[in-house]
């Protein structure tokens, strides 16, 4: 459904919102697998990794034709972009945020995220989620650089009439965004938080201030590495409770 004027979100003025169960898995499944899961599984939406230099999986299925096919079968899609990662994070990611490049890199990655979404047939007024993995939030310089990057990424999406979503961990990356006071300008419009408590809800046990991201703007990754079979097809996925904007498919 389309909901107009969600509170606190000036850009864009409307969004396609999905409420229900979603799943995410690293490589987008084949269209036949998606069809089998749609016919007998509990899920109505699936996350797909559309780009970013730190995206870790090949995506041989993820084309505009695939998007059109699975959307036509009734799936809602949650685009996820693996952008630059924190300077204080322990990893081998090729693209890193620094204090010097945070703003310019956020703007460039935001523009790239929109271009990749549009190439897949995803229109403005839809959402794209920025994936920020765990990092040391006791490092204030690191936190500041990451927030600058996030805000710049969000501005780039807003300038192109997309919703700027954010995926992060309640113990680190999501917490840093939730606790970014007093200046909440250009912070994410929707929050997809990872908290592995087994609860398929976006309300009960919400780990941050209750007034944050209300009005259909929350996703909750509540279980990982769940091996499930529907329509005779087995996949290992992460489970999500969803009540937030998704892609607008043209």
Instruction: Tell me the name of the CATH homologous superfamily.
Output: Glycosidases
Report the end-to-end length measured between terminal Cα atoms.
14 Å
User: How would you characterize the largest beta sheet?
Assistant: 8 strands, mixed, barrel
Number of domains: 1
Describe the structure.
This protein is of the alpha/beta class and 250 residues long. The protein has a single domain (2-249), classed as Glycosidases (TIM Barrel). It contains 5 helices and 11 strands, in the order E-E-H-E-H-E-H-E-E-H-E-H-E-E-E-E. An 8-stranded mixed β-barrel has the order 2-3-4-6-7-8-9-10, surrounded by 4 helices. A two-stranded antiparallel sheet has the order 5-11. The model is unreliable at 1-12 (pLDDT under 50).
Structure at a glance:
The chain is of the alpha/beta class and 250 residues long. It contains five helices and eleven strands; from the N terminus they run ββαβαβαββαβαββββ. It is globular.
Question: Which key terms come to mind for this protein?
Answer:
single chain; 250 residues; alpha/beta; TIM Barrel; eight-stranded mixed β-barrel; 11 strands; 30% strand; globular; GH; Rv2525c-like_Glyco_Hydro-like
SSE blueprint:
Layout: E1 2-4, E2 14-24, H1 31-40, E3 45-51, H2 64-72, E4 76-81, H3 102-119, E5 122-123, E6 127-131, H4 140-159, E7 163-169, H5 173-178, E8 190-194, E9 218-230, E10 233-245, E11 248-249
Parallel strand pairs: 2-3, 3-4, 4-6, 6-7, 7-8, 8-9
Antiparallel strand pairs: 1-2, 2-10, 5-11, 9-10
Helix pairs in contact: 3-4
Protein name: Glycoside hydrolase domain-containing protein
Pfam families: Rv2525c_GlyHyd-like (PF08924)
Domain Rv2525c-like glycoside hydrolase-like: 36-242
């Amino acid at each position: 459904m389309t909901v107009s004027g969600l509170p606190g979100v000036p850009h864009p003025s409307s969004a396609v919102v999905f409420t229900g169960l979603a799943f995410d898995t690293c490589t987008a499944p084949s269209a036949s697998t998606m069809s089998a899961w749609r016919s007998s599984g509990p899920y109505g939406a699936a996350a797909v990794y559309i780009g970013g230099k730190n995206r870790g999986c090949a995506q041989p299925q993820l084309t505009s034709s695939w998007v059109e096919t699975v959307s036509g079968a009734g799936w809602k899609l949650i685009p996820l972009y693996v952008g630059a990662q924190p300077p204080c994070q322990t990893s081998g990611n090729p693209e890193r945020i620094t204090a010097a490049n945070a703003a310019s890199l956020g703007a460039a990655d935001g523009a790239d995220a929109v271009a990749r979404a549009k190439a897949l047939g995803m229109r403005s007024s839809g959402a794209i989620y920025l994936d920020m993995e765990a990092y040391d939030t006791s490092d204030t310089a690191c936190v500041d650089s990451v927030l600058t990057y996030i805000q710049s990424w969000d501005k780039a999406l807003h300038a192109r009439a997309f919703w700027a979503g954010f995926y992060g961990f309640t113990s680190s990356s999501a917490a840093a965004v939730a606790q970014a006071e007093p200046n909440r300008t250009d912070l994410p419009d929707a929050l997809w938080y990872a908290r592995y408590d087994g609860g398929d809800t976006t309300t009960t046990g919400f780990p941050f201030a209750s007034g944050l991201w209300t009005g259909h703007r929350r996703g909750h990754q509540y279980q990982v590495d769940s091996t499930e079979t529907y329509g005779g097809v087995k996949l290992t996925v992460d489970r999500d409770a969803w009540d937030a904007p998704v892609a607008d498919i043209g």
